[in-house]
Amino acid sequence: MTSRNGSDQPVETKDIPRPDQSLIAALQGIGSATASGELKRLGIRSAFMQGPVCMTPGASIVGPALTLQFMPKREDLYPDAEYVDPERQLHRHALYHAQPGDIVVVDARADMTSGVFGEMMMTYFRGRGGLGVVIDGCIRDSAQIKKLGLGLWLRGVTPNFHTQTSIYPFAVNVPVACGGVTVMPGDLIIADDDGSVVVPIGLAPQLATKAGAHVEWEEFSRLKLAEGGDLRKYYPLSDAARAEYEAWRRAQTPERRDETG
Question: Does the predicted TM-score (pTM) go above 0.90?
């Protein structure tokens, strides 16, 4: 059970379940756009976290979500200073759980005046093998953090520290709302230049199968369209192009077929 700030009890937070690496590998290269479209076909109307945008062009990551929830500040529940009683500051505890490949997802209430993490915290997270953060809010020390090689999906940046204005970290690895989407601890995140998408962990195997096939026929269609092929025939792949696609697929090397399913 997560202990809240202000309690006399030691802070205890749960870790998250993590999927087998083979599932994450199967989702690599799919991209947020394909993931979003295929999730719609699986019954999830919109998995896109609207608000946080990619601040690290070219970054593309897939990994399980550590979650951090902020709430409106109540001064009787949280010390009004940056370094007072640091071990009661739950944004630190979210990072204590970090393992290689993890992504931190933060419900910062779309607040534009609180820097959820700064350079030192993100240096620690990167050192633990973290891949990136999706924050419905801001960070500070942005220039230094960008040098760490983390993927950053944010609403913006600020010079303020995390509790300087109106919010404070409240809970770790609980369900959160980020960019208008519910994120459960351990859900998978697919994030790239188009944005970040939440993959419910129970749907991830189906998504990997469907999206893998989608990516493969799109590669074939892209080649044909680049050669001047008929859009009506090749996108989406029509029945008239199916035999041609299957022949192309069989002609790929065994190594290539293994990569694309």
Answer: no
